[in-house]
Write a structure and sequence with these properties.
2 domains; Serine Threonine Protein Phosphatase 5, Tetratricopeptide repeat; about 65% helix; single chain; mainly alpha
Amino acid sequence: MLLVHARRATRIGPDGSLALLADQDRTRWDREMIAEGRALVVTALTGGRPGPYGVQAAIAALHAEAPDVERTDWPQIAALYDVLLALAPSPVVALNRAVAIAMRDGPEAGLALLDDLKDEPKLRAYHPYLAARADLLDRLGRLPEAASAYRAALELAGTEPERAHLRHRLAAIEEQP
């Protein structure tokens, strides 16, 4: 929880907009909380067989340690999602793993994994699944499909900052020639 809470001040921009992890000002993250959280992760992972919360904390620690998204240890995060999927299998964990694989191996690899999840009942009404799919389609230049996925995610988003973010991403696609 410390590792997640350390980033809270940067999740929403000054204008109330959603700030994705890639866009957050990491200099504003609470380094003391991160250090304490990292120490607790080490304890959690070395005190016997780790549970799902310990693995989730290790993933959060890797995000917190990285100076930016590009230098995040995506191979390690993907490996930890493999462990988490074995410990606590769920469609949402599989979705997060697919995103980590996309960051490690490219959007096409991640999209293939997302396509494997398309019939999961729990993901049909889960806007982050559709938003992740839209993002990967956008990165692949498959703009009509990306726009459609953003529209579907927009219909399901639960908060105004999420909807505003999705509208912004959709508009960026629709403005392209």
